[in-house]
Write a structure and sequence with these properties.
Radius of gyration: 23 Å
Low-confidence stretches: none
Mean pLDDT: 90
Helix content: 40-55%
Structural class: mainly alpha
Strand content: under 5%
Strand order of the largest sheet: 1-2
Largest sheet: 2 strands, antiparallel
Shape: elongated
Number of strands: 2
Distance between the termini: 51 Å
Length: 178
């Protein structure tokens, strides 16, 4: 719990910190439920961590992400001299199986857009920008401002700090989006 608390002051991404704290709290809950909270750090075996990690077995990718978060906690313990080695590295690995995304057919896309138009106008606009301009929804669309559009609303300009590729990105805005 001390390691989790200290991670709040580290210069790591907020997402990684949140995920690490979440899996750390889940481990504490797991130990509490299995009456093993009195174990010392040195008694934390890879087998115990392996049984805990089975709760994240829904997919190889999910398991490996949570294993990485758990390893981050124990790495911090090793750095502080609380443990000689990281027991998470002795737990089993699961293979990540990449999935190929498939594109919607024109009919499927039109059906989704019709639904979104009636369901939520902002979500509909977001979908138009995603499919019409290939903008990413998380930051490129969510943080879009009037200053990103030219005067006649035909292009969107994003600086390198505003998109994933870190390059200046100028995108034409199709008429059906405006």
């Amino acid at each position: 719990e001390d390691v989790l608390e200290r991670s709040r002051e580290e210069e790591i991404s907020d997402r990684y910190r949140t995920d690490m704290i979440r899996v750390g709290n889940a481990l504490v809950d797991y130990l509490r439920k299995n009456s093993q909270l009195k174990l010392t750090l040195r008694q934390t075996s890879p087998q115990l961590l392996e049984s805990f990690m089975q709760t994240y077995g829904s997919s190889g990718t999910y398991y490996m992400t949570q294993r990485s978060n758990l390893a981050g906690i124990f790495t911090r313990m090793v750095r502080r001299g609380l443990l000689a080695e990281n027991p998470v590295y002795k737990t089993s690995l699961k293979r990540k199986v990449p999935m190929l995304n498939t594109i919607f057919t024109r009919e499927q896309l039109q059906a989704v857009l019709r639904f979104l138009e009636g369901y939520n106008k902002n979500l509909y606009l977001c979908a138009l920008l995603m499919y019409g301009c290939f903008l990413r929804p998380h930051r490129e669309i969510r943080l879009l401002k009037r200053r990103h559009l030219n005067d006649d609303f035909t292009t969107i300009s994003l600086s390198g700090t505003e998109n994933k590729s870190k390059r200046i990105r100028i995108v034409r805005l199709p008429k059906y989006v405006t």
